């Protein structure tokens, strides 16, 4: 319990009343004492009439799961337990982890329970907790403020948002070149696995003519092939310090996970096997490549459990660990980031070792703000300095990416909104060209 600003103002007004006996007459002393007495009495009455803290019950209901970057409703029911004294209660929810604290809300109580709907926004993946609810209200005269805190044990599991993944995958599978579900995928003239024998028609590749079958049927027949299935696709996600940085409202690692989920879903649906690898200062996770659409649930759960750290990424330990685990040639997708060409030196050396045995796709998230700063018209010295710095960073970035391409690495350098499409396009190109098998 504490006095409000109105109570302080009430006592402050007693100061000019106290000066009346000094400047006018001693008879005004009684008026000053009466003023103070009435002020104390009013505060006491307000404290007695205020809603007792023991009467308040708080019931919270939070969603069991939510997606990163999504807002969900936290239902907060404040029950005065039948107390008829009206009160305007202000509620403030305290959160732990990376749940953005919801704004303060007020509820007018008049004997009946009131339910507030507060928005919870998850900024990172993981399990987060609503720690408690702080309540404050005043008495009917507004002279005394009461406060109380109710502890809470509500937990919310924050998962990667797979709805865009499924939507993008459905658009992909609606393409005429693909058959829905897990049916055979056909690319005429490409691939290495025999699919069927059909009568030769003008326009077909003459190299596909099966001369033995043609001799038996006394007609020209050609072999039809499909893209090879059962490739190994391994997604290696950097969870180090640089991947904690926000980009477009989400951490870079969350954008990387979304792109990895999309590629993993498509690869599983087309018959390939998908594995997951994560590292920062040391290897953190390795999920062996698995096949079948049912494996996506396990893949998603493993991705949801990834935790970005403040440690510097050790590409030597991370990529060497991955290389020792892979027994066959695979499509390795490395999702990471770098600052300049100097700090990227060790990364280049280790990617060069990996590309000797595997097809490597390097995914870097491009910051659109750097391009905007570089292209903006400088506004003063500070603006010019920012533009020059952004141009230097982009130039060093392009130097590193060109080195990767000269090594034979497929590079996807795109903004967060385009990185998933770029990665999927690179994967399909590698599959059509049989670059993995």
CATH architecture of the largest domain: 3-Layer(aba) Sandwich
In total, the number of domains comes to 4
CATH homologous superfamily caption of the largest domain = von Willebrand factor, type A domain
Terminal CA distance reads: 73 Å
Task: Kindly report the CATH topology of the largest domain.
Answer: Rossmann fold
- In percent, how much strand structure appears in the residues? 25-35%
Mean pLDDT: 81
Top CATH class of the largest domain: Alpha Beta
Helix content percent band: 25-40%
Structural class: alpha/beta
Please describe the biggest sheet, giving its number of strands, its sense, and whether it closes into a barrel.
6 strands, mixed
Q: What is the number of beta strands?
A: 20
- Using only C-alpha atoms, the radius of gyration works out to 33 Å
Shape: elongated
Total of helices: 12
Ranges where pLDDT stays below 50 over 5 or more residues in a row are: 178-191
Keywords:
Immunoglobulin-like; 4 domains; six-stranded mixed beta sheet; 12 helices; about 30% strand
Summarize the structure.
This protein is of the alpha/beta class and 437 residues long. The chain folds into four domains: 2-49; 53-159, Immunoglobulin-like (Sandwich); 163-182 and 229-432, Rossmann fold; 193-226, no CATH class. It has helices at residues 5-12, 14-23, 29-49, 163-173, 211-217, 252-269, 295-304, 315-325, 345-354, 368-375, 380-407, 416-432, and strands at 2-3, 57-61, 65-67, 71-79, 87-95, 99-100, 105-109, 114-122, 126-138, 144-159, 193-199, 221-226, 232-238, 246-247, 250-251, 273-279, 283-290, 331-336, 359-365, 410-414.
């Amino acid at each position: 319990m504490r006095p409000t600003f109105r109570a302080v103002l009430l006592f402050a007004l007693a100061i000019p009343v106290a000066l009346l006996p000094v400047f006018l007459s001693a008879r005004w002393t009684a008026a000053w004492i009466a003023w103070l007495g009435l002020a104390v009495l009013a505060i006491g009455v307000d404290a007695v009439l205020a809603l007792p803290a023991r009467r308040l019950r708080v019931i919270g209901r939070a969603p069991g799961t939510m997606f990163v970057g999504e807002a969900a409703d936290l239902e907060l029911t404040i029950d005065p337990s039948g107390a008829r004294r009206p009160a305007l209660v202000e509620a403030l929810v305290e959160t732990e982890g990376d749940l953005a604290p919801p704004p303060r809300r007020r509820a007018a109580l008049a004997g009946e329970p009131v339910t507030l709907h507060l928005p919870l926004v998850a900024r990172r993946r993981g399990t987060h907790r609503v720690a408690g609810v702080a309540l404050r209200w005043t008495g009917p005269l507004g002279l005394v403020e009461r406060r109380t805190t109710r502890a809470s044990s509500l937990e919310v599991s924050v998962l990667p948002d797979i709805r865009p993944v499924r939507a993008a995958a459905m658009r992909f599978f609606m393409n005429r070149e693909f058959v829905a579900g897990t049916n055979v995928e056909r690319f005429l003239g490409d691939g290495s696995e025999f699919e069927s024998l059909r009568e030769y028609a003008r326009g077909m590749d003459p190299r596909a003519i099966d001369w033995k079958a043609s001799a038996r049927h006394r007609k020209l027949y050609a072999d039809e092939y499909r893209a090879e299935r059962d490739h190994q696709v391994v997604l290696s996600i950097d969870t180090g310090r640089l991947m904690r940085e926000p980009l477009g409202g989400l951490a870079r690692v969350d954008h990387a996970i979304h792109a990895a989920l999309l590629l993993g879903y498509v690869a599983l649906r087309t018959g390939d096997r998908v594995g997951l690898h994560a590292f920062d200062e040391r290897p953190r996770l390795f999920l062996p490549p698995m096949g079948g659409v049912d494996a996506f649930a396990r893949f998603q759960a493993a991705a949801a459990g990834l935790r970005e750290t403040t440690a510097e990424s050790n590409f030597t330990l991370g990529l060497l660990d991955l290389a020792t685990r892979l027994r066959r040639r695979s499509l390795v997708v490395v999702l990471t980031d770098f600052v300049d060409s100097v700090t990227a030196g060790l990364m280049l050396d280790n990617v060069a070792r990996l590309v000797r045995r595997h097809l490597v796709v390097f995914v870097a998230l491009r910051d659109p703000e750097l391009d905007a700063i570089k292209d903006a018209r400088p506004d003063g010295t500070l603006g010019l300095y920012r533009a020059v710095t952004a141009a230097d960073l982009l130039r060093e970035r392009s130097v590193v990416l060109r080195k990767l391409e000269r090594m034979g690495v497929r590079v996807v350098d795109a903004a967060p909104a385009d990185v998933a499409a770029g990665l999927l396009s690179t994967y399909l190109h590698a599959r059509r060209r049989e670059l993995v098998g």
